[in-house]
Amino acid sequence: FARTTVAKVSSRRMSSACNLQATNLMLQSATTHSYRKPFAGSRVQSRSQRPHTGSAAQAAKIVKSADDNDAASIRSERSLASPAGRTMKMGSRKFRERGVQATWTCNASSTPFDSSENGMVATEAGEEDVASMIEKLRSENEQLAARLAAVKGKTAAQEQVVAAPPAQSALDTAKTSKGESNILGSMSGVHITDGKVVTENPPAASASEADEMYAKWMARADVPKTDDPLSIVFVSSEVAPWSKTGGLGDVAGSLPPAFAQRGHRTMVIAPMYLNSKTKELYKEVTYTGKNISVYLFGGEVTVELWHQYKEGVDFVFLSHPSYSREGTPYGNEYGAYGDNLFRFSLLSLVACEVPLQLELGGYTYGDKCVFVANDWHSSLLCVYVASKYRPYNVYKEARTILAIHNMAHHGTEANTVFGGLSLPGDWYGAVEWVFPEHMRAHELDKGEAVNPMKGAIVTCDRILTVSQGYAYEITTEEGGFGLDGLLRGRQHVLNGIVNGMDIDEWDPATDPDIPEHYWPGNMEGKKECKRALQRELGLQENENIPLVGFIGRLDWQKGPDLIQDGVHNHRMLEQDVQMVMLGSGDPAMEEWMAWAESNYHDKFRGWRGFSVPVAHRIIAGCDIILMPSRFEPCGLNQLYAMRYGTVPVAHATGGLKDTIEDFNPYAHEKMGAGTGLTFSPFSGEAMCGALNSALDTYRHHKDQWAGIQQRGMDQDMSWQRSASQYEQVFRWSMMDPPYA
Q: Is the whole model's pTM more than 0.90, yes or no?
């Protein structure tokens, strides 16, 4: 008479409901029976009762597996007996406790439980015992009905769906397994309508799947150890967390520990920018007792060496009065420091002495090492090694690698400062630079200058940039900033390696700066992050309104003027969208953000300045990150965004083009491909076109949008990927003789 499927609920209260249904099924009339049909995986739905119209009786086997500590379940299946007669077996814990199991054979025209007319035959118990058992079943039925009514009264008024709690994290699931139950107890994920129990999210299956996805997300690949360790000396003007103004600080703080994990002896050398705001950062840095003196700009300059061992890396800091100033590492509110060439030539020259003089762990790094000079600030190191050490058989076994993070800055100064750089006179040609006529101050200006970046390009052993796309762009007239010809001449030793990111610091499953954690397979937390960000910004809390973010310096390179053009000329904010911008820089652009907030108060927010926790919340809470950079050597925000399930929309340039696979909804038999959207050329119209495509996908193609998020979060963005490629370049440099 009945067709049923499995309905499992892990609680005694659900056991009461299931027992009631099993008993009701046996006591119902022949013309009306419960009808169930499986739907959408684990979900079980009840349909209204249907009259029986067939002439032959249908039977079902109902098995009630019971254990006082286990979840109750009902299992039913259609019998394959002949039309002339069907067999119904009924068993329950109550019956098994008595050692009794009853079996009846019913004629096709008979009605169950009517022993006076249908000729029911008891095969394992007498008729009197069967009648007694049925009476007891009726009594139990009334008790179970009372228990179910109590459950219904507790779960919801007006028999509504019990609201399921937010998806538990794996950590919360572990707590529940230890006895810390949630507020709804074992009834979470269940609702009751018309006396039928319907499961929405089976707790056991959901918890198991959440644990599996969480474990996969948190897993870290084993790091291979090298059997031929190198001594690596990483020289940088900034290193996070002690000093940071951009991506260079992140690289200097994260890439060397990745080298150390692979078994290399690694040192980072950087200035110690000690002032009232930063002194707390250096509290664990200790004085080594070692000073190094060098001759520079007409006199002897002495530098103290300070040290901190962290994450397997020797961080060595140079202490000198020229570094201890209020402001940034490069300037203050009045502009760049006028003695920056002295400050960073001092860094480069002392860095050449540290591996030879400073004993760490009982011995020095020695002169067989690999120097990595980052940007123009430490670029003179390559020139010093070639001109002051190798001619005297020092650093013959060493190699110098120039890592270019931003080709726009060369550190150029008038040629009159050459005498102060402590370079041999016949090496002037290595750093000589002549400005083109249109860049000279006046007609009598010869444009003669000293260019540290040019000196490194012509003396280093190999050249690296922070993406393959940028490695090409710096060899073009547009991206080379006057040095493209020299770079084309050394293109055979030029490589691009995309930066990685600290996947432990930027992890939506553990990030302490976001209101709710999430990971692939459990994205509900991202919706809460969005609502919290909208609430924090004073915007309407609505998950259906796409939220667009921008994080970066307000300067020419980062392209905020393209957003300005989109608002004024392409109606970017005249649609159902919200936007937040975080950054500082150009005063005119800061004023424009204030104007946009006042004129689009329900859609736009501008946050002047920079805050790491705020950046984390914007990355996690936004649906889209906009990156309209004119040029971008690598870029990190798009990496952070993809890891957090936020879709980047970016100008197709440099590292942005290398790291973002453009969205294609028709790829892989319309399953889709891509991790973001890019646009070209650099124009407001092209940017708004890509942005509108992203907004349309978000609003109308949720499955495709989820695919973009998933593919972005699946990317390998760790520093170990980058470190292995750097190591290969180091090996290549050792194969060739020194270049200069």
A: no
pLDDT surpassing 50 at residue 404:
yes
The whole-angstrom separation of Cα 551 and Cα 535 is: 19
Is residue 346 a contact partner of residue 378, using CB atoms and an 8 Å limit?
no
pLDDT digits (tens, 9 = 90+) for 265-311: 999 999 999 999 999 999 999 999 999 999 999 999 999 999 999 99
CA 647 to each of CA 537, 581, 693: distance values in angstroms, whole numbers, following the listed order:
20, 16, 12
Q: What are phi and psi of 414, to 5 degrees?
A: -60, 150
Query: φ, ψ for residue 24 (rounded to 5)?
Result: -60, -40
Angle at alpha carbon of residue 219, lines to 214 and 225, rounded to 5°: 175
State the CB neighbour count (10 A cutoff) for residue 264: 23
* Tokens 């790094």 -> residue: 365
Neighbouring residues of 228: CB distance < 8 A, sequence distance ≥ 6? none
Name the β-bridge partners of 148: none
Please name the residues in contact with 185: beta carbons below 8 A apart, sequence gap of 6 or more. 11
- What distances in angstroms separate CA 289 from CA 235, 319, 360, one per listed residue? 21, 12, 12
**Cα 175 from chain centroid (whole Å):** 25
For residue 319, count other CB atoms closer than 10 A to its CB: 19
Give the β-pairing of 190-193 and 196-199: antiparallel
Strand segments, DSSP code E, in 187-249 are 190-193, 196-199, 231-235
Query: Model confidence over 39-59: pLDDT tens digits?
Result: 333 333 333 334 444 433 343
- Three-class SS state of 665: coil
Contact (Cβ atoms closer than 8 angstroms) between residue 378 and residue 348 = yes
User: Which H or E element spans position 172?
Assistant: helix 170-177
